[in-house]
Write a structure and sequence with these properties.
Blueprint: H1 5-31, H2 41-62, H3 67-94, H4 105-143, H5 148-155
Length: 156
């Protein structure tokens, strides 16, 4: 099943944005590895999360070689990414109220912004999936040859 031109452009820009963000996460985390004494795991969070995002994009290319292997790796990367998102959230949000924070300002604000961006992305993706499921359910309900009135009466 071929993709439309709009889908290809959308996928390209999504991959481009996430790739740029992933590289920025690795660079900023690496540059400030020792600049957050209050929570030294924040730079590590950025480096590992950025590397996982880049690996996930490489796995998409693996799909042409082995569909099953690509699916298994995607599931493992997804589960690790969820756990890493939770860990990063704990490390970053735990020191939000601490004043002075004793963490490099750019490092902390970038990690904070990345986490908020990810949560917004997850919410939008979740809402889109729910809408698609709802629309698919409606389509199935109204595309059958049995009239809706009879279908409900048969279940009673």
């Amino acid at each position: 099943m071929g993709e439309t031109k709009a889908e290809q452009v959308s996928q390209f820009f999504t991959v481009l944005v996430w790739t740029v963000l992933s590289i920025a996460m690795i660079i900023i985390g690496s540059m400030h590895i020792d600049n957050c004494p209050i929570e030294p795991k924040i730079p590590i969070y950025l480096i590992v999360a950025g590397a996982f995002h880049l690996m996930a994009f490489l796995v998409f290319q693996l799909k042409t070689v082995s569909e099953k292997l690509a699916r298994a790796i995607k599931i493992v990367l997804f589960l690790i990414s969820i756990c890493w998102l939770i860990a990063g959230s704990v490390w970053v949000f735990r020191i939000y109220q601490v004043n002075p924070r004793r963490c490099h300002d750019l490092l902390y604000k970038f990690a904070f912004g990345i986490l908020i961006f990810k949560y917004i992305f997850v919410c939008i993706a979740g809402a889109a999936i729910l809408c698609l499921c709802f629309c698919a359910g409606l389509n199935m309900a109204f595309s059958s040859e049995i009239p809706v009135r009879n279908r409900f009466q048969e279940n009673v």
